[in-house]
Structure formats: C-alpha cells, structure tokens
Design a protein that fits this description.
The chain is mostly helical. The protein has one domain: Butyryl-CoA Dehydrogenase, subunit A, domain 3, CATH 1.20.140. Helix content is 76%, strand content 0%. The chain contains six helices and no strands. It has helices at 2-17, 30-55, 62-94, 101-123, 130-134, 139-162. It starts with a helix and ends in a 5-residue tail after the last helix.
Length: 167
C-alpha cells in the first residue's frame, strides 16, 4: 500500500508540475514589465538631465530654448505615467487573491488610457513649429526628439504585448 501511494504521489507530481501542463506565456512577465518601466524611467531622467545641461548653454536661440523646455515638460509627464504603470503591474504581481473580471477590465482600461496619454504627448504640437527648428539644422534637437519619440513608441508597443498578463 505504501508503494502504491508513493507511486501515485510521484505520478501526481509529474502530472501537475510538468512544464507541458503549464500554459504558454506569449508576453513578458510581471518582473520583465517592471524592469522595462524602470529602464524607461532611468533613460528619461538621463535625457532630461542632458537637456538641462543644454539649456544652460547661452548660445541657444529662443526657438531652441522653447523647444527644449517643451520637451522637458513632455519627459516629466511621461515619467509620471510610467510610474503609474509600474505601480499597476507591481501591485498585480504582489496580490495574493484572484482578480475578478471587472477588476481586470479596469486594469486593462487604465493601461489603455495611459497608452493613449503617451500617444497624445508625442503627437501634440510643440510650442515652436518644426519649420523654425529645421532652419537651424541643430543636431541636438533632432537627436533628443528622436530619442524621446523612439522611447515612447517602444514603450507603447511593449504595453500591447504585456497586457497578456491581465487576460
């Protein structure tokens, strides 16, 4: 009888703990998502510090200064949003009870709203028109704008993939 119960226990262990019985995860996990959000946060803070150093340069034109102030404002807005995302994912990962369908729907709606806010921040017109900026051929301007847009677009694409956690 002991051998039979031992055999059944081992069989149950292999049945329920095998990697084949685990559902395949298509997207990133909670930890990877949080790491991505913190990487975005760190890169944005570094870019903001570099722009602050550029703004100390007295040879900047008024249009360039306005553009950089506008870009710093956009960077700060995205920092708040990415911290909200990190908190959502962190709390979801630390929760010990199962979320109801309505709670998951709320989280997904909140993530969609934040993604929409990122899109709006990128697509809003800048204080200074791009035609004025293109006349200067300023590499620092185009580089910082490109970094910002690329980072936000990568984060939005990541959000689409990472929502599988909540489904």
């Amino acid at each position: 009888m002991k051998k039979l119960s031992l055999l059944l226990a081992v069989l149950a262990l292999f049945t329920f703990c095998s990697p084949f019985s685990a559902p395949a995860q298509n997207g990133p996990g909670i930890k990877e998502s949080i790491n991505t959000f913190m990487t975005y946060f760190n890169e944005t803070v570094v870019q903001s510090i570099r722009i602050q150093e550029i703004l100390k340069d007295e040879t900047l034109s008024d249009a360039d200064s306005l553009f950089f102030f506008d870009l710093v404002t956009r960077l700060e807005k995205t920092l708040g949003l990415v911290l909200n995302l990190r908190d959502l994912y962190f709390l979801y990962g630390k929760t010990t009870y199962c979320f109801t369908k309505d709670e998951r729907k709320y989280i997904l709606d909140r993530i969609e709203n934040i993604s929409g806010a990122f899109k709006q921040i990128v697509e809003n017109k800048y204080i200074v028109s791009r035609q004025e900026l293109e006349g200067h051929k300023n590499d620092r301007l185009t580089e910082n704008l490109g970094l910002f847009n690329d980072r936000v677009n990568r984060l939005r694409a990541f959000l689409e993939i990472s929502q599988e956690i909540f489904r």
